[in-house]
Specification:
The complex is a heterodimer. By secondary structure, chain A is mainly alpha-helical. Helices cover about 50% and strands about 5% of the residues of chain A. In chain A, the strands form 2 sheets. Chain A has a 3-stranded antiparallel β-sheet with strand order 3-5-4. The mean pLDDT of chain A is about 95. Classes of the chains: A mainly alpha, B mainly alpha. At the A-B interface, helix 1, strand 2, helix 3, helix 4 and strand 3 of A face helix 1, helix 2, helix 3, helix 6 and helix 7 of B. Chain A: The system is composed of three essential subunits: KdpA, KdpB and KdpC.
């Protein structure tokens, strides 16, 4: 028992050094050297490409119905027969319809992370007429813009097709 | 169509893991890798362990327990003292006593149930030096126990079942660390974070948004959380968070990492008991159960969310509440089923917001005892206990003393296996009953109606099975849930490990009975069917009433909302 105790303490210290310090620090060194942009959060002039933001008003493409607070990630955790969820959905649908946007399911539902940066291509197409009207741009140009931004599934089969809302809006801002 | 290819790719990659990682683990645990001996020798010298000196099952078990107790104390200490320790750029204060206690027990038992939010609770030292270290070591303990039980079946007239310290060191530095090291680099390349620089402030002139982005050494922890079937996220959102699981590729690799060791261990088992076919039979049971549960979940999630359906919005993408756009409903279902059929518990979508049947699939996946394929090590020793019960039932049917792998299965073996199988359901049901009866428990659920009951049942099922996933709506970070949960965590781990090791010790001493015409062949479809049936019947009989009160009522309450 006493021998076990000594071994347990010694081996815990050894593994603390190998697994708790050497391993993550080595990975940090490799990550910072080889993939500096990704390892630090994929930051651009307008935020992180990976993290969703709240876009207000008809002149922008909107994302998922998330809180978009990276310090409080997670989903709504409301169950499939939650009255609160039903009320939230009704409220969001009314808000979208007021802006002339077809309430696509992506724009009404919240994601699992609470900071989803993407929407499905169909959810982006559903917003084109509202954005076109607000900005005085032709729907054809916006259609081409969205089409250019459709990514995935990765390698043709991993995950689902999606559009990054930040990248889409960044390019939208440059259109005249 | 894309999803069909995902499944094909997964099967191919796992087949390779099964054959090659499985064979590699035989070499590692039998100490035949001489070229590796140089690496481990200094560690044995430091702890004064002789790699050739073996332990009886009692000594093996006491080493497991003493080691886990020390790991628990060290982790608890780091959480409580983190504000005075280095690697704390965001100035996290010490963790509350009951949260620190629950978390330490949770990570040492390979559960990774998290009642806290990582982004606002843990310093980098706590994440790297306590949580991630335990992700490695608790996994290595599970693998060690599995290998010890396999030795019990493989040996004849032996008093010993291996040396815990040697198995612990070998599993960690030869199996877990190299795979994690390579996988982490891939994760970083995809966009998982790996930095010690603290949070970042960003603002966007286009929309006036400003955000605080918590960061950290995430990729190194993310990969071992999957590989070791631990599951505890760096952030609250776990694998749904884009900084942990950024792309379709990392989502797929997460699933591969979770499944590779549990699947490969069936090869290791077959090889060590001198019959690969025995390992294939076990793997076949796991595959049948896994396939059934995946189908149930994927079909349910394709149906869409009942609350959204009530508003009339069409849902061609399936139920997307709580799911990430880049994964979609199908890949999310695959990830969450994988995680609940093993003892992982990481999620890439909010379990609480799955459809009633989807949520039931995750809940009942754990209730079967997590043997399809189960956690690293825990899956193999779990299903071997079910196998002992299966040959016992088979023996009763034909009136013959049962055998498994040439070992006579007698009263002691059946009692130990039954104990190992029954601890979990008893603990889950008693704790759930207590929580639904007292005010401190009833205060927990976010959702009303049957879904609220499911949240409580899920919490104890998850902790006692050492899974760690949750119906996240439950407010579990209270002294009541943290303390009662710890009871489930400890019983679900050690009240199964000790019978498993006792079983190993007894079996190792036995001699082998020669196979005869009357022997019930355990490498044939008949056995696969019977074992699958035993797992389903034990889980079904114990849990059906409880499940009926939660997800089944919810599914049948068409058009009702609470």
């Amino acid at each position: 028992m006493l021998l076990d105790l000594r071994r347990a303490i010694t081996v815990s210290i050894i593994f603390f050094v190998i697994l708790g310090l050497a391993y993550p620090l080595a990975e940090t060194g490799i990550g910072q050297a080889l993939f500096n942009h990704q390892a630090n959060g994929s930051l651009t002039a307008h935020g992180s490409e990976r993290i969703g933001q709240n876009w207000d008003g008809p002149q922008w493409f909107h994302g998922r119905a998330d809180g978009d607070d990276p310090t409080a990630t997670g989903g709504s955790n409301l169950g499939p027969r939650s009255k609160e969820l039903l009320d939230k959905y009704k409220e969001r649908i009314a808000g979208l319809e007021k802006q002339g946007v077809t309430p696509h399911q992506d724009l009404v539902s919240a994601s699992g992370s609470g900071v989803d940066s993407d929407i499905s291509p169909a959810a982006a197409y559903a917003q084109i007429s509202a954005v076109a009207e607000a900005r005085g741009l032709s729907t054809d140009r916006l259609h081409a813009l969205v089409e250019n931004h459709v990514q995935g599934p990765q390698f043709g089969f991993l995950g689902a097709p999606h559009v990054n809302v930040l990248e889409l809006n960044e390019e939208l801002a440059t259109l005249k | 169509m894309g999803f069909a290819w995902t499944i094909v790719a997964l099967v191919l990659v796992l087949a390779l893991c099964w054959r090659f990682l499985g064979a590699y683990m035989v070499v590692v645990y039998e100490g035949r890798a001489r070229w590796l001996a140089k690496v481990e020798r200094p560690i044995y010298r430091a702890i004064g362990a002789d790699p050739k000196a073996e332990q009886t099952w009692q000594r093996y078990a006491s080493s497991v327990i003493v080691f886990s107790a020390i790991a628990l104390l060290i982790s608890y200490g780091i959480f409580r003292l983190q504000e005075h320790l280095p690697f704390n750029p965001d100035h996290m204060s010490g963790v509350e006593w009951h949260t620190a206690w629950n978390t330490a027990v949770s990570f040492v038992t390979n559960t990774n149930w998290q009642s806290y939010s990582g982004e606002t609770t843990m310093s980098y030292l706590s994440q790297m030096g306590a949580l991630a270290v335990q992700n490695f070591l608790s996994a290595a303990v599970g693998m060690a126990v599995a290998v010890a039980l396999i030795r019990g079946f493989a040996r004849k007239g032996s008093k010993t079942i291996g040396n815990f310290w040697v198995d612990l060191v070998r599993g960690t530095i030869y199996v877990l660390l190299p795979i994690a090291f390579v996988a982490a680099i891939v994760f970083i390349s995809q966009g998982a974070l790996q930095t010690l620089a603290g949070h970042a402030e960003v603002s966007n002139a286009l929309n006036g948004a400003s955000q605080t982005l918590p960061r950290g050494p995430i990729a190194s922890q993310e990969v071992i959380k999957q590989l070791g079937t631990n599951g505890g996220g760096f952030f609250n959102a776990n694998g749904a968070g884009p900084f942990e699981n950024p792309t379709g590729l990392t989502n797929f690799l997460s699933i591969v990492l979770i499944l590779c060791i549990p699947v490969a261990l069936t090869y290791t088992f077959g090889k060590m008991v001198f019959s690969i076919r025995q390992g294939v039979a076990i793997l076949a049971v796991m595959t049948v159960l896994f396939g059934g549960w995946l189908t149930m979940t994927a079909v349910a999630e394709q149906q869409g969310n009942p609350a959204l359906a009530a508003t009339g919005v069409s849902q061609p993408l399936g139920n997307m509440e709580g799911k990430e756009t880049r994964f979609g409903a199908l890949s999310s279902s695959l990830y969450n089923v994988t995680s609940t059929q093993t003892s992982t518990g990481s999620v890439d979508s909010a379990a609480d917001s799955y459809t009633p049947i989807g949520g039931m699939a995750m809940l009942t996946g754990m209730m079967l005892g997590e043997v399809s394929p189960g956690g690293v090590g825990t899956g193999v020793y779990g299903i071997l206990m079910f196998a002992v019960i299966t040959v016992f039932i088979g023996g009763l049917m034909v009136g013959r003393t049962p055998e498994y792998l040439g070992k006579k299965i007698q009263a002691r073996e059946v009692k130990l296996a039954a104990l190992g199988v029954l601890v979990m359901p008893i603990t889950v049901l008693v704790l759930t009953a207590i929580a639904t009866a007292v005010n401190a428990g009833k205060a927990g659920p976010l959702n009303a109606g049957p879904h609220g009951f499911s949240e409580i049942l899920y919490a104890y099922t998850s902790q006692t099975n050492n899974n760690g996933s949750g119906f996240g709506g439950l407010s579990a970070n209270t002294p009541f849930y943290n303390i009662t949960g710890t009871i489930g965590l400890l019983l679900g781990r050690f009240a199964i490990i000790i019978p498993a090791l006792a079983l190993a010790g007894g079996l190792a001493e036995k001699t082998v009975v020669p196979t005869s015409l009357g022997t019930f062949r355990t490498d044939k479809p008949m056995f696969v069917g019977l074992l699958t049936g035993v797992v389903l019947v034990i889980g079904g009989l114990t849990f059906l009433p409880a499940v009926a009160l939660g997800p089944i009522v919810e599914q049948l309450s068409h058009g009702m909302f609470w």
